[in-house]
Write a structure and sequence with these properties.
Alpha-Beta Plaits; two-stranded antiparallel ribbon; two-stranded antiparallel sheet; 4 iron, 4 sulfur cluster binding; metal ion binding; binds iron/sulfur cluster; 7Fe_ferredoxin; globular; iron-sulfur; 18% strand; 56 residues; 4Fe-4S
C-alpha cells in the first residue's frame, strides 16, 4: 500500500518537503513511488487541494 496523488494535482509542491523518504517526484502532476512510500500520511495532510489519499 502507498499513498497516491490524483490527476487533480495542481503541482504546488507542498508535499515534497514533508515526505520523510523522498518518495515524491515533481512533474506536471506529482507522483509517489509506491516502492518507497511508508504510508505515513504526511503528504496527504500537507496537500492544500486534498488530492492525496491512501491507495485502495
Ligand atoms: Fe512520503 Fe509519507 Fe506521502 Fe508516503 S505517505 S509519499 S512516505 S509523505
Amino acid at each position: 500500500m502507498a499513498y497516491v496523488i490524483s490527476e487533480d494535482c495542481v503541482a504546488c509542491g507542498s508535499c515534497i518537503s514533508v515526505c520523510p523518504v523522498d518518495a515524491i517526484s515533481e512533474g506536471s502532476i506529482y507522483k509517489i513511488d509506491p516502492s518507497l512510500c511508508i504510508d505515513c500520511g504526511s503528504c496527504a495532510d500537507a496537500c492544500p487541494t486534498g488530492v492525496i489519499s491512501q491507495a485502495q
